[in-house]
Amino acid sequence: MPEFILGARGHDFGRHDPETLFSSIGQAGFACTQLAFPKAVEGVKSYDDVTPALVERARAAAAASGVGIAVDGTYVELSYVDEDKRRAEVAKVLSQIPVAKALGAGCMGSETTNMAKQPGVTRKEAQEALLRSLGEILPACEEQGVLFAVECVYYHAMNTPEAVRMVLDTMASPNLRVICDFANYVGPEAASVDAQRRIWDKVGSWYGDKITAVHFKGQNFQPDGTLYSTSLEDSCVDYAGGFEMLRQMPQASLPVLREEAVPARAASDLAFMRRFAY
């Protein structure tokens, strides 16, 4: 059974210099983080601003605070069908592979593009674009010894356990991993516990051993199916079933990262997370 290491996204603490950012995360009680430089670090407007000196400051600040960097968050659109746009997004990832390596991050991570961003594009076309992007990213990751993790979201290009399995099988890369966000598997038609248990069974049996990080957030649905964020306590997500699945996995440890964290609620969030992770 993995040891679950509780953490939070860095940019939920606001934009700060690296020292303040990591100190704030650690003082809130979190042991690891997902770091996205353009979202969390002062002065970083694009990946071009992530200099070696800044990377070293972040690495040193993480070490001093005792907060591990579980995920180097690369927020990119891997499934753009427009080739010029897609290549520009891939270039962002390629530029950050040495950064992830220098940070000692557990992995790099990205979602796979909201279908609403490409009206008229079919999911099959978006998934084919995703495979092209990964085909350019993964050789560089393999060469530099960096893991790259993709995240399933029910309204994105890679939207179901079946789609995740297809991507993993097609790419067949030892450096391709999965970020498991329980909430992102759960659309309005799958909000019941029974429906979610069927999802967790597929995730665990098909690729549970490929999970390298877990996201933890609250959500629910309006009667018309509209998604909205909630506290962890008011969420429809079947955390108990998800962690029952994760406990069967062979990983020595797994970071569990609170998304949409409110620093003032860190103590109660951690208490809630510990109910499932310990």
TrEMBL record:
<dbReference type="Pfam" id="PF01261">
    <property type="entry name" value="AP_endonuc_2"/>
</dbReference>
<keyword id="KW-0255">Endonuclease</keyword>
<protein>
    <submittedName>
        <fullName>AP endonuclease, family 2</fullName>
    </submittedName>
</protein>
<dbReference type="InterPro" id="IPR050312">
    <property type="entry name" value="IolE/XylAMocC-like"/>
</dbReference>
<keyword id="KW-0540">Nuclease</keyword>
<keyword id="KW-0378">Hydrolase</keyword>
<dbReference type="InterPro" id="IPR036237">
    <property type="entry name" value="Xyl_isomerase-like_sf"/>
</dbReference>
<dbReference type="InterPro" id="IPR013022">
    <property type="entry name" value="Xyl_isomerase-like_TIM-brl"/>
</dbReference>
<dbReference type="GO" id="GO:0004519">
    <property type="term" value="F:endonuclease activity"/>
</dbReference>
